[in-house]
Design a protein that fits this description.
Layout lengths: L17 H12 L15 E7 L6 E4 L7 H9 L33 H11 L5 E4 L3 H10 L8 H14 L5 H4 L2 H11 L2 E4 L5 H12 L5 E4 L13 E4 L3 E3 L4 E3 L2 H8 L11 E7 L5 H8 L14 H9 L5 H6 L2 H7 L2 H17 L5 H25 L2 H4 L7 E6 L10 E10 L23 E8 L28 E8 L3 E8 L9 H17 L18 H18 L9 H29 L4 H13 L11 H6 L7 H9 L8 H8 L19 H23 L6 H6 L6 H8 L4 H5 L6 H24 L3 H14 L12
Parallel strand pairs: 1-9, 3-5, 3-6, 4-5, 6-9
Antiparallel strand pairs: 1-2, 7-8, 10-11, 10-14, 11-12, 12-13
Helix pairs in contact: 14-19, 15-18, 15-19, 22-24, 23-26, 23-29, 28-29
Family: Belongs to the helicase family. SKI2 subfamily.
Subcellular location: Nucleus
Pfam families: DSHCT, Helicase_C, MTR4-like_stalk, MTR4_beta-barrel
Amino acid sequence: MLPDKVRFVFLSATIPNAMQFAEWICKIHKQPCHVVYTDYRPTPLQHYLFPSGGEGIYLAVDEKSVFRQANFQKAISALGDDATDPTTGASIKKSTGSSRKRDGSTKGPSDLFKILRMIMVKNYHPVIVFSFSKRECEANALQLSKLDFNDDDEKQLVKSVFENAITSLSEDDRGLPQIEHILPLLKRGIGIHHSGLLPILKEVIEILFQEGLLKVLFATETFSIGLNMPAKTVVFTAVRKFDGKETRWLSGGEYIQMSGRAGRRGLDDRGVVILMIDEKMEPNVAKDMLKGVSDPLNSAFHLTYTMILNLLRIEGVSPEYMLQGSFFQFQNSVRVPQLIKDMDIFEKRRDGILVEDEQLVGEYYQIRSQLELYRRDMRDVLNQPAYSVPFLQPGRLVRIARESTTENPNGDFGWGIIVNFVKPQQPKAKMGGNIKTLTEEPQYIVDVLLNCAPAENDDSSASSLLSTSVQPCPKDIKRGSALIVPCLLNAFDGISSVRINMPKDMRLLASRRQCLATIKEVESRFKDKVPILDPIKDMRIEDALFQKLVSKIHVLEPRLYEHALHNDPRLPELYSSYESKMILVAKIKDIRRQITQAESVLQMDELKARRRVLRRLGYTNAQDIIEIKGRVACEISAGDELVLTELLFNGVFTDLTVDQTVSLLSCFTFGERSGGEDPTVSFPDTLKQPLRILRETARKIAQVSQESKMTIDEKEYVESFRPDLMQIVMSWCQGARFADICRMTDIFEGSIIRSMRRLEELLRQMVAASKSIGNSDLETKFTEGIAKIKRDIVFAASLYL
């Protein structure tokens, strides 16, 4: 939006797509943008692994960025028996933050304690220890409460800096538990840094760390973003994190961002990164994490009602103009030339495939593809734990087939034998229940003896769940490796009615080879048509949908077998050629869709839907001219502008006291979920009534949005207005001390202060909104609200100012 004459300087440490960003600047401002880029790191890093329960560290990636495969395997092998592969479904006892030793006991020093003791002995401090939750951060720091890393002079300096920092606070605020409890830790050279701390504490800890008075700092991921505070060593307490939806491996970009804190330029010849692992991981996962690239800079641009309304007020500028010039739009449209090139290549390949009797082959292909789809659906039903689990006895033959991919086209392992099966302790699903109502079961793991591709060492079992490292034995090899492989139920391609007698000790190679020989004998006896369990008679599946699925298969199978090509000797070659051609046709179709999508203005449908919402609620008229409600909404950006404007025009705030008003507005500024009980249970009627009106208003807006073709979840939208701080804010407005309101909740002090500061910003915007419609009473009320909350430690001045 800035004029083209303005010159820019963009600085960043890690952007792999800097050239793309520069191209966007060139396009929208019509001026050259020079990129100065280097991969050189002044202080190289060494990446070590510390296995749970271990006694030492293993160099996984050296300072030349070479992955040490042998050391990696040693580290994985050193994991304790209870730190098993996550894919096997066995429970994993986390060692991070606990005092567990390798044998599973809780006596003796914890893994973290051992690492930090080694770091201090080798003089690798200062060290930053990254954890992925605020509570874990504090628990880890308390583990070291008996250690002391500072001498008397350093302790005196810490005390002096700390006392000078808190002189601006009142006597009551200086007695806050968080302030009193953290000083003894700081004096011993141990610090904590996370978003739940009081802002003034975070700042004093940052100052102490910069001055070298803290030797160990326990921090969350936020410490690695926006703060230039490197250390000599960085420790990760876990390799997985919860991202709000699932627990997953750290991405390469996240790992680089945090590990980049290791190594101080001009002070250290190298930085040390130690990754604590308590789960077995594949080498590829480790390489992607330790040697991955930074996350690219991607646009997070999204439309808001305030943005749309403000753009409608400006003559010569429209929301469409904003969308067309956004980095989000540029990133999509810049792919078009490459997409066209790819499409031309695929079209030439498609035209180069000539299939004899193509129409006839096409008919056969359609029937077979549809039949395979129905069979896959049938297989999914048969593999439901409710139906398959009763038949998972040792000795039963099962057919295993992994889904084929481009890298691993052959995923058919053929028939194997169930060796072991441990059922998780979960409620049983009822036999014969409706398929759609079957509850989601935990991952069932079955150990199956399979004939696998020859391996260097013929161990009794595979190290991980049917991964790409385990391959079927090729047909031209007489003897493969007899491996016991843990398999998920979705890898089952058939459960046989045949069971065989099992040798007592399957760890013996001779026993396993004997079982594979028995499988071949069974296949020979039944002429490669090993009988499988009947889904109706044996497995007792009585669901109507499944019966319909079976009927469809029974209709298609005769058509397939009676087709002119079914017994044609040319079929394998013709079918393979036609299938290759269809794959290319599907790719071409997908690329055309991507090109169409990239060339059109993205988010245009959302813009149209949002405009419909604004018209229906009376914020704009049919000509998109802003009405009085729209002018009010233009002033609000710190909270949901539509709900706040509706509350304002419905006179909700007029009938509330100042304390009630400020308390209600806290629902718009607090976004965290507290783990306690529903806070509204103990609310007085003075808070319950305004909250009910707020939720009804939000529900109405959600319904109008859905009618206007907006994608919105009504329940989720209503629940986004969190009432957790309402009673706390009410007490604060009535003059309560900060220590008193902290005792009312388990929410971190830093989170309360952050929400209150956002609340003050929202109140200022509500003052401006009231002024825009000439309502002096509301303007006075919101101004009084600001005066009531803006006091003491909540709005203490920053130490950096």
